[in-house]
Specification:
CATH superfamily of the largest domain: Uncharacterised protein PF01937, DUF89, domain 3
CATH architecture of the largest domain: 3-Layer(aba) Sandwich
Shape: globular
Largest sheet: 7 strands, mixed
Number of strands: 7
Order of helices and strands: HHHHHHEHEHEHEHEHEHE
CATH class of the largest domain: Alpha Beta
Helix content: 40-55%
Number of domains: 2
Radius of gyration: 18 Å
Strand order of the largest sheet: 1-7-6-5-2-3-4
Structural class: alpha/beta
Number of helices: 12
CATH topology of the largest domain: Rossmann fold
């Protein structure tokens, strides 16, 4: 999916929220916002995915405020809460078998994508302690597109699965889902960002939740980008995209990019994410915030 005019208000609102949370000095905040909006006006390119512009805006914000890891405490707390929820889910899942067990872990990993404090409606001030209740309410609404049973069939026996992670918090639930995937598939490779930006999970976050003891290999997808970027893709991710028989992608930012570059990917591509805007939801005949579990065809 490429940038549309409908994306512009979201760009502005997102960076405004971030600046307000990260900078308490009003005068400095206004200066930083002017810098970010000037950058957007100079670099706006409707032939690129929206995530490329959001990445650029947040990099501008990071540089202006001198931050290496924005939202550091919030990121750490969300990972801790994610691990607590994942422990409860493992206990509940141990009593299940077959597809119900698979669906249990997959649906919770999917719902956890809605914890994105940046733009999913929870806001930067979201209380992590309310996370499980929030996810439960999201799951109760059901899935807008539900192809989890087809994923269950395709994942079984898959030789090599590439898992493209999205945010902190949900990362621990991804780990529980990967444990389930490995019960019937071959290798699972986890791709994480090389630097912190908003709530996207980094290699450090993966290590913090113990992902290195679950996935067969952790690789860097690239630098501090929102979702993966084909402009800044790492050699390791390029190689894995060529080798994987199945790519599992979390998050709307990854959907943006993969839907544009689908024909360049050899294996099957399955997206699990919460829609954050109508332009994306409309593509699936839906409106508003929806949970989607869907294969991407090469014709999309």
């Amino acid at each position: 999916m490429l940038t549309q005019r409908h994306c512009l208000p979201c760009f502005v609102d997102d960076i405004s929220q971030a600046a307000e949370f990260l900078c308490q000095d009003e005068a400095r905040r206004e200066t930083v916002l002017r810098l970010c909006l000037r950058r957007l006006s100079e670099s706006l390119d409707f032939s690129q995915p929206p995530s490329y512009h959001i990445t650029d805006l947040h990099r501008t914000l990071k540089r202006a405020l001198g931050l290496r890891v924005p939202f550091c405490e919030q990121r750490k707390r969300l990972n801790e809460i994610g691990m607590e929820i994942a422990a409860e889910l493992r206990e509940a899942g141990s009593r299940l078998q077959g597809f119900p067990r698979f669906r249990h872990f997959a649906s919770w990993a999917l719902a956890a994508n809605a914890l994105d404090s940046r733009s999913a409606g929870t806001g930067y001030g979201f209380r992590p302690a309310a996370a499980k209740e929030y996810l439960s309410s999201y799951l109760a609404k059901g899935l807008g597109v539900d192809q989890l049973e087809a994923l269950f069939e395709r994942a079984s026996g898959a030789e090599r699965i590439l898992y493209l992670h999205d945010n902190v918090g949900e990362l621990a639930l991804d780990a529980a889902f990967i444990e389930e995937l490995k019960r019937s598939s071959g290798q699972v490779i986890s791709a994480l960002r090389g630097g912190a930006i908003t709530s996207d999970a980094t290699m450090e976050d993966g290590l913090a939740v113990g992902l290195q003891g679950i996935s067969d290999r952790l690789i860097l997808a690239g630098p501090d980008t929102l979702g993966i970027s084909f402009r800044e893709i790492s050699p390791e991710l390029t190689e894995e995209l060529e080798r994987a028989s199945l790519v599992l992608a979390k998050g709307q930012a990854n959907y943006y990019v993969l839907s544009e570059y689908r024909r360049q990917i050899r294996g099957e591509v399955f997206c699990l994410f919460s829609t954050k805007c109508d332009p994306v939801a409309h593509h699936f005949g839906l409106r508003g915030k929806q949970l989607l579990a869907v294969f991407l065809s090469r014709e999309d």
